[in-house]
What we know:
By secondary structure, this protein is mainly alpha-helical. The protein has 2 domains: about 1-360, no CATH class; about 365-445, no CATH class. About 65% of the residues lie in helices and about 5% in strands. The protein has 20 helices and 4 strands. It has helices at about 1-20, 25-40, 45-50, 55-65, 70-85, 90-100, 105-115, 115-140, 145-155, 170-175, 180-195, 195-215, 215-220, 230-245, 255-265, 265-275, 280-290, 295-320, 340-360, 400-410; strands at about 370, 380, 385-390, 395. The strands form 2 sheets. A two-stranded antiparallel ribbon has the order 1-2. Strands 3-4 form a two-stranded antiparallel sheet. The radius of gyration is 22 Å and the shape is globular. The termini are far apart.
Amino acid sequence: MIGQALSILGDALRDGALMFWNTVWALVLGFALSGMVQAFVPRDRLRRVLGRPGAGTLAKAGVLGAVSSSCSYAATAMAKSLFAKGADFGAAMVFMIASTNLVIELGIVIIVLLGWTFALSELIGGILMIAALGIVGRHVFPPRLVDAARRRLQARTEAAHPAADENLPAHWRERMRSRSGWADAATYAVADLTMLRKEMAIGFGVAGLLSAAVPASVWGALFVSGHGMWSSIENAFIGPFIAIISFVCSEGNVPLAVSLWHGGISFGGVVSFIFADLITLPLLLIYRKYYGWKLTLRILASFWVTMALAGLAVEATFTALHLVPTSRGQGVAGMSFAVDVTSGLNVIALLVLVALALLSRTRQSSTLYAIDPICGMQVEIRSAPARATVQGITTYFCAEHCRDRFLRQQSGDGGGVPAPRSPTLHMLPLAKSTEAEPGSGESHGHP
Length: 447
């Protein structure tokens, strides 16, 4: 019994490693391009742009979200912050969807692991989902609940501390010609990779375990087939359910999608599953904290339905155009370690990653950004969703989730909150008003 379990574990680790090895170059390329977009594409004045309800606002929210790549937790916090400061609730939800599902790195990973048809389906499905959410949102999110949630958030939000105007980033054309601009792009890329390392590790690990331990009969019982449209509907709606209970967010759910596709889920089911990283159980609990249970349940229902409908619409369209893949491949079993083009690309990608890490250390605009010590995400100081000041040292976070975890880590068994530990060393230098001077005896809270 123990020997069989160890064998399955070994196969799971091997399969997960194989899948990861086949996507290394794609991950690095995706994060590098994402870092460039975040560093050079202007994203200021979001609240003014997203404050008026309407189709145009939703379209702008989708575009701005697509260039504001982030993990599911950070996207949730950003949407909450935009909403609390005046953005339309529907636009904030669209922004959150686009910033996790319509981003560059996700598309590249999908192309490598599932093929270009799935990447195209995610893009088209994302647009359809946003359109559907815009239609149903006016009825699902009544003004009384939305206004109550906004007042609740505004009452809890700390006063903003914007940076001085002279600290704002230069024009994007100037930044592209500057060393500091490219250093910022490298820092965004490295920070995003650091931020998503846990989700990706869990995603590849669970995908390997499913590949090694779950027999085909289980997939056959879970995914109904042979009943035409009814099978497609069942698969499209069960995809988000698997996402809810799997707890895996962002790029981490793509490897799981590979296992599900190989296991027999429909084309539309894969699409709806990948979209559903925003309704995993941990995120639903965060929505409850932000907006209350009534609005959270409406978010869950509307997201689940629109995700499933988008998956069904894409499947019907691609079927009519004969674009749905006819082969499900061999799953992870078809992958292997070999000296081939993929290995060569991976070596180049790893060298690029080292170069990005070195370049990020030379960045000049250190008064504009800080690094979240919990998840590693780069955070703009003047619009940080959460912050905590401990013994005179301010730390900035991508979300309240990370801030609360940080404070729990610092509290220790004594109940008090001692000064920040080593993670704050990863913060970029802040303004002198919040930074302990070397040799002052106040560094990291030590007297």
